[in-house]
Amino acid sequence: MGRRNIAMALSALVIIVSISSLAIKGLNFGVDFTGGLLLELGYEQPADLGAIRERLEESGFEGAQAQHFGNTSDVLIRMLPRPDVETAQLGQQILTLLKAGDVAVELRRVEYVGPQVGEELTERGGTAMIFAILMIMAYIMFRFQWKFALGSVAALVHDVVIVVGVFSLLQLPFDLSVLAAVLAVIGYSLNDTIVVFDRIRENFRLIRRGTSAAIMNTSINQMLGRTMITSLTTLLVVMSLFFLGGEVVSGFSSALMVGIVVGTYSSIYIASTTALALNVSPEDLLEQKKDDEFDSEP
User: Fold this and answer.
1) What is the pTM of this model?
2) Which of 5, 15, 38, 125 qualifies as a FRET site for 262, CA 20 to 30 Å off?
3) 212-244 and 250-268 helices, crossing angle to 10°
C-alpha cells in the first residue's frame, strides 16, 4: 500500500492510452459483429490451415479466418464481404484460388451474415457486461460493505478497459470468443478481489490497532503468495492454449493472458486502494449494536 499512488498513476496512464486508442482507432471487429461471408469447403485430404491462410492473405483477403469444421478435411472460412463483388462470384474466386495448387477441393456452401446480426450481438454483449457488473456490485455490498463494492467495480472496469484497449491498440480481431474472454476476466478478477477482501475483513476484526492502510497492507501480504501461485498456474494453462491451440483460440487466449496479469494487479492495488480512498475503516465492518434496555424516567 505504500506504493499505491505510483500504481494508481500507472493505471491512470494506461487507461488514458486505452480510451484514446478506442476513440481514435476503435476495435477491429470480426465477422461476428460486422457481418460477412461464411464459406464451407471440403477437401479429399486433411486440409493445411496454415497454407490456406497464407494463400488468402497473399491474394488480398486480409483478416480471413480459416478453421476446421467437423473434421480435418472440412474447412470453414469467415471473411468480410467486398462491395464490388457479388457473394456467388466471391465464393468462386476463393475456390479457384485454393485449387491453384492442384488440390482437390469443393465449395459446399456460401452464406452471408448481415450486419443486423452483428448489431444485435454487440448490443447483447454490452448489456451482458453491464448486467454482470451491476450484479457483482450488489453482491459485494451484501457480502462486505459499499466501499468495498465500489472498489471491486473500479477494479473490474479497470480490467475491462485495459484488455479492450490492448486489442484496439494492436488492432487484434475482436470477435465473440474475445468477448467471452473479457467476461471470463471479470469473473477471475472478482474471485481474486473477494479473496483479498475477505482477508482484509478478517484482519479488520482481529487487528484493532493500526491504520486502515497498515491493516490492508498486512492482509495483502498474507494473501500475496496464494494470489501469485494461482495467477501463474492459470497463466501457464492459457499460454499453452495460445502457443498450441492454433488460430481458432488465439484471440480468446490472448485476452485471457492480458486479463490475468491485469486482474491480479487490480485486485492488489486498484480494488483495495479505491476502498482506502473512500476512508474504509474497521468500524465499517463492525456489527451495530442495538440497545435492548431503555433508561427510566429521570
Assistant:
1) 0.79
2) 125
3) 170
